[in-house]
Amino acid sequence: MSAAPRPETSPRMEPFRLRGANFNLLVLRLLDPRPEAVVPAIGDQFRRAPGFLRFAPVVLGLDDIALPAHEVDFAGLIAGLRELTIVPIGTTGGSPELRNAAMALGLPPVRSVGGREEEAPLAAAAAAAPVAPEPAAPPPPPPGMARPTMIVEQPVRAGQRVYAAGGDLIVTATVNAGGEVIADGNIHVYGALRGRAIAGGGNNAEARVFAQNFDPELISIAGYYAVREGLTGAPIGKAVQVRLTGERMRFDPI
């Protein structure tokens, strides 16, 4: 009696894949690292600009911290930020001791794409296993070549985030309240801007924001920002160009 034929088996699918990717992350510079100072201040921004940073992954900037690592309450900071539905995922800058203290609580150092390698944290240097090098950042466009531009023709809804990496963003419709548009370059909104607009990623202080109907929840250029209640001198509801002059925002009618 012959044995029954064995069923054909399909090749096993690989359970995962790793690939390099670039993401737009906000850096929360800790000018005062005390949880009792930082957390209430961010909570106040939440009240003035609903949705500001809510569920956003952030990197903690440590360059401005002059305190020794043992005096920085990273556990309190992490707990306080998470209570505000902010998700700290890592750190940038600061001394090796500060980075070690944060990494012990699950916040590893994060290197910006194309940035310099930070000194390896002392505690991790001995245990770190060799890893494949990260893919090189794409070279900047040659002089005279236009930067890439993203064009969005549909309204940006509440809770939606649109990011134009490495270039400008043009929205031909409305950015609704609760929506967010982000660009490394300029932002043009040919409808109403009622949500949040963040231009000049990577500290591009020359970036500008243009809106036909200017009524945002929050506006930011190169890390400088203003919320709706702080726009008392801006022509709300009008066509406006926003730019930086030094460290001040300027709102010019178009």
UniProtKB/TrEMBL annotation:
Residues 151-250 form the Septum formation inhibitor MinC C-terminal domain. Belongs to the MinC family. SUPFAM superfamilies: Cell-division inhibitor MinC, C-terminal domain. The lineage of its organism: Bacteria, Pseudomonadati, Pseudomonadota, Alphaproteobacteria, Acetobacterales. It comes from Roseomonas alba. This is Probable septum site-determining protein MinC. PANTHER family: SEPTUM SITE-DETERMINING PROTEIN MINC. Keywords: Cell cycle, Cell division, Septation. The keyword Hydrolase does not apply. Interacts with MinD and FtsZ. Cell division inhibitor that blocks the formation of polar Z ring septums. Rapidly oscillates between the poles of the cell to destabilize FtsZ filaments that have formed before they mature into polar Z rings. Prevents FtsZ polymerization. Residues 16-88 form the Septum formation inhibitor MinC N-terminal domain.
